[in-house]
Amino acid sequence: MRSIRLTILILGAVGAGAFVYAIWELQSTRKNRTGLAAAVVRQNRTRGHIAALETQAQSMEKRTAAIESDNVLLSGAIERTRQIDAAKTQSDATPLPRAEVEDRFKRARALAANGDPELALRELLWCYDEGFPRMGGSKGISFEIQKGGQIRIAADVLAQLGERYPPAQAILRERLENVRQRLLSRADDPGSIDELSFLARALKDQTAVISLFDQTSSDDPRRKSLVAVALDDFVTAHRYADALLVRDYRTMNTNFALTSQVMRDPAIKQAAINIEILAGAGDFEHAQALTERLLKFDNSPEARALVQKHLERAGRPELSVQWLK
C-alpha cells in the first residue's frame, strides 16, 4: 500500500514538474517571439535609414555635378564677356576723324528737320553714342568741353525730332531713366551727371535732376555736381539753400567783379539771380550788400526793376521797398 502511495506521489510530482516546465517553455517562446518581432522592426527601420542616406548621397552627387556644370558655363560666359568688352574698349579708343563726324551730324540735322525721321534718328544716335565721344582732335580740357557741347546739341536735336517723330522722344526718355538708375546705383561714371543734365534739358524736364538730388544722402559728394548742372532749375523751384552749395556770397562777388568788366548785361542778370538766391535762403545781409554793389554799378530803372522782380520771386517783396528807395 505504501509503495502504491509513494508511486502516486512520485507520479504527481513528475506531472507537476512537467506542467511547470510546459508553462515556462510557453512563456519563453512568447518572449522569443516578441523579441524577434522587435528585432525585425528595428532591422526594417535601419534599412529605411540606409535607403534614405543612399538617396541623399545620390542627390548630393547630382547637385555637385550641376554646380560644377554651372561653374563651367559661368566661367565661359565671363570670359566671353571680357573678350567682348576688351574688343569694344579697343574699338571705342580708336578716334574718328573730326570732319567725318561733323559732316555726318550736319546731314543728321538736315534729316531731322525735314527728311526721313527714322534715318534721322539712327544717324543722330550714332553721333550721340559713337561719333562725338570718339571724335579726334586736339587734346585738353577745352576740347573735351567742346565734345560735351556737341553731345548736348545732339540731345537737343533728338528732342526736336521727337516733336514730329515720337520714337525719338521715347528713346530720350528711356535714356534719361537709364542714366538716373546708373547714378542711383552709385556707378563710377563721371559723365553720367552731365548726360543727365543734357537729356533733362533737351526734354525740358526741370524736375529730373532735383528728384535725383533728393534721393541722394546728405554726405554724397555728387550733390554739388547735381546742383551745378541744373542751378537754374533749383532756383526756379525755390531751392535756394541747395543753390548755395555751389554759389556762396564770395563766389557771387568774384563772378560779378569779373563779368561786369566784359559783359555788362549778363553780369546784371546774374547778380539779380544771386540776390534772389541769398534773399530766398534768408541771408539778407549779403543779399542787401550785393544789391548795393549792383546798383552802384548800374542804377538804371531796368536794373532796379530786375532786382525787384527777383526779390518778389524769392517771396521777399518787402525787401525791394527797403533796398530800392
Quick gist of this model?
The chain has helices at 2-93, 98-114, 117-131, 141-162, 166-184, 191-202, 208-214, 223-229, 231-236, 240-243, 249-262, 264-280, 284-297, 301-313, 317-323.
Q: Total helix count? A: 15
Mean pLDDT across every amino acid position? 81
**Computed CA radius of gyration, to the nearest angstrom:** 45 Å
User: How are helices and strands ordered from N to C?
Assistant: HHHHHHHHHHHHHHH
Beta percentage is under 5%
Rounded to the nearest angstrom, the distance between the terminal CA atoms is 163 Å
Helix-strand category = mainly alpha
Largest sheet: none
Oligomeric category:
single chain
Runs in which pLDDT lies below 50 for 5 or more consecutive residues are 6-22, 69-81, 83-91
Number of strands: 0
What does this structure look like?
There is one protein chain. The protein is mostly helical. 82% of the residues lie in helices and 0% in strands. The protein contains 15 helices and no strands. The chain has helices spanning 2-93, 98-114, 117-131, 141-162, 166-184, 191-202, 208-214, 223-229, 231-236, 240-243, 249-262, 264-280, 284-297, 301-313, 317-323. Mean pLDDT is 81; it is low at 6-22, 69-81 and 83-91.
Question: Helices, strands, pairings?
Answer:
Elements: H1 2-93, H2 98-114, H3 117-131, H4 141-162, H5 166-184, H6 191-202, H7 208-214, H8 223-229, H9 231-236, H10 240-243, H11 249-262, H12 264-280, H13 284-297, H14 301-313, H15 317-323
